[in-house]
Design brief:
Elements lengths: L1 H27 L17 H6 L4 H12 L7 H4 L7 H7 L31 E3 L8 E3 L10 E2 L5 H5 L6 H14 L16 H7 L3 E2 L15 H6 L4 H15 L6 H6 L5 H7 L5
Parallel strand pairs: 3-4
Antiparallel strand pairs: 1-2
Length: 276
């Protein structure tokens, strides 16, 4: 009888131990955590997609879709990618930001002038008796409103924007050179002297087309360019160079630079639109 009791206890102990061993992997299994931030699925790079929680293979599928001419015109289009599960789309939907590109509409033909109204007069040359030099006298309406791309505009185009004078024209061109290109018009607020009131005056006269954003690789970029970049600076550029020497270019991603405290969270997010 004692032998049977001991045998029963041994079998029970063995079954209980096996059950714990089967459950152990489930308890130690790590969940993959993703970082959430605002992004445009039409311009986001492979490293940024991986930061959002996609595998490299899933990220490449999205990139290849865009390279073949695919475009996400509204956030719901992103959910139609087979690599994006319904649960993943529900998680990312609040962070999807697709800029609205205004279409160029051909101007309507001018309406004929109303009766009793004179059409705008052309400049006329008037000579004064006291001077032999002709003077130009302008008569007409106010200056026409413009709509220019910040990444394509030269100084003459910028000056034509109401609210931009010589100082801000030079400052905008200088800041664009340091950035490589503008990613959105709100970056004008980062220019010294540009406050919200001035920005409100010019924001409806300028835009940034996504195709004009110049992308680059931090691992392959020239160190002098990184030193001058407003979101990196000389100190971080040196740290990135040392990181590449020790870890290699393959490891030089936004995520790894952030995790090694070489980029702040704010600058990491601001650099996302520029990554290849």
């Amino acid at each position: 009888m004692m032998a049977l009791v001991l045998l029963f206890q041994a079998v029970t102990f063995t079954i209980h131990k096996c059950s714990k061993e089967e459950q152990a992997p489930q308890k130690t299994k790590k969940e993959i955590r993703s970082e959430l931030f605002a992004f445009d699925p039409n311009t986001i790079g492979i490293d940024s997609l991986q930061l959002l929680g996609f595998s490299r293979k899933q990220a490449l599928t999205i990139i290849h879709y865009r390279e073949k001419g695919g475009r996400f015109r509204k956030k719901e289009d992103f959910s139609r990618m087979y690599t994006v599960s319904p649960e993943k789309y529900e998680e990312l939907a609040p962070y999807i930001e697709i800029p609205i590109v205004e279409k160029t509409i051909a101007p309507k033909p001018p309406k004929p002038p109303r009766p009793k109204e004179k059409p705008a007069e052309k400049p006329t040359i008037v000579k004064e008796e006291a001077s032999d030099k002709p003077q130009v006298s302008w008569k007409g309406g106010p200056k026409e409103k413009v709509f220019i791309d910040l990444n394509q505009a030269d100084s003459a185009a910028l000056i034509s924007v109401k609210g931009i004078g010589p100082y801000f024209c030079k400052a905008i061109l200088s800041y664009r050179k340091a950035l490589g290109s503008f990613a959105h018009i709100e970056q004008l607020l980062e220019i010294r002297g540009m406050d919200q009131e001035k920005f409100e005056r010019i924001k409806d006269q300028v835009f940034v087309h996504p195709a004009g954003i110049k992308k680059f690789s931090i691992a392959d970029a020239d160190e002098n360019f990184l030193r001058r970049h407003p979101y990196i600076g000389a100190y971080n550029a040196r740290g990135i160079a040392l990181f590449i020497q020790s870890q290699g270019k393959e490891q030089c991603t936004l995520r790894s630079l952030f995790e090694n405290n070489l980029l702040s969270a704010e600058d990491t997010l601001r650099l996302h639109p520029y990554m290849e």
